[in-house]
Design a protein that fits this description.
23% strand; three-stranded antiparallel β-sheet; 2 domains; alpha+beta; Multidrug-efflux Transporter 1 Regulator Bmrr, Chain A; single chain; elongated; eight-stranded antiparallel β-sheet; 8 helices
Length: 271
């Protein structure tokens, strides 16, 4: 190679530097986006290292989803203000994507933790546990009409939490009031709920207080049997039933086949 061309890259060398196929560079030349600095009569093409900076800008905009035609316009009619506008626009789009991915990651982590917890749990056990305060978005009062309300209340809860980015992957839960527990009306719930990270202005929230809870597990729909066991345990421990029992799936139909194989965690507030 002559001294004149020692500072140039062949098409193959430049393609290797850019980590693309030579055909990509041929296409860019064909559409006038990035052409070799030198084209010899014998067909050889040579690129300057400085052109690698141009290629990086092209690759960056492609990553942003900017069409090659628009990239060509930007590079042909260079204008710092236009470039600033585009970069700001893409920076905002990336920030929104990051937020969305972080949100999805939080949902995945919740599901992962719930599943791992389920695998470590003895579902035949009943115990007294100290639980921390948690925030729930709750439905309207559905006492005495739970069955009729499920088809409207559940979609409302799910849609609202998704719309306002409050969804963290927790399943729908249910609150059973002390009065219904004492009457053995174990399916007559007062509210449905979704666990959310924080209270919001217009959201109807309920704070589950920190304190002592008797925790037991219900398999399938055997609520009568499970609650009777829990009530006996409460009496044997000399405790009093608190204001609510909170029910939430440990194993739902995502993890198990059929409702009969589901497992619900019941957390009964006691004093």
């Amino acid at each position: 190679m002559s001294e004149e061309l020692e500072r140039y890259f062949t098409t193959g060398e430049f393609a290797n530097l850019c980590r693309v196929k030579k055909q990509t560079l041929f296409h860019y030349d064909e559409i006038g986006l990035l052409s070799p600095q030198i084209k010899k009569e014998n067909g050889y093409r040579y690129y300057l290292y400085e052109q690698f900076e141009v290629f990086q800008v092209i690759a960056l905009f492609k990553e942003f989803g900017v069409p090659l035609k628009e990239i060509k316009t930007l590079l042909t009619d260079k204008n710092p203000r236009n470039m600033i506008t585009l970069l700001k626009e893409k920076a905002f789009e990336i920030e929104e994507k990051i937020k969305h991915l972080n949100h999805l990651q939080a949902i995945i982590q919740t599901r992962l933790q719930l599943t791992e917890h389920a695998l470590r749990t003895d579902f035949s056990s009943i115990s007294v546990q100290h639980l921390e305060e948690e925030t729930f978005m709750i439905s309207e009062n559905i006492l005495e009409e739970a069955d009729q309300k499920y088809t409207t209340v559940i979609p409302e809860l799910i849609h609202y939490t998704q719309l306002h980015k409050l969804d963290r992957g927790y399943p729908i839960g249910a609150m059973l009031a002390r009065e219904q527990i004492q009457k053995h009306e174990f399916n007559n719930y007062k509210h449905l709920y979704v666990k959310i990270p924080e209270a919001r202005g217009k959201v109807h929230c309920h704070i589950r207080p920190q304190g002592l809870y008797v925790v037991g597990y219900q398999r399938g729909d055997e609520s009568d049997h499970t609650y009777n066991r829990i009530i006996r345990f409460v009496e044997e421990q000399g405790l009093k039933i608190g204001k609510y029992a909170y029910e939430e799936y440990m194993i739902d139909e995502v993890m198990a086949d059929g409702i009969e194989n589901s497992v619900t965690r019941i957390q009964l507030q006691v004093r």
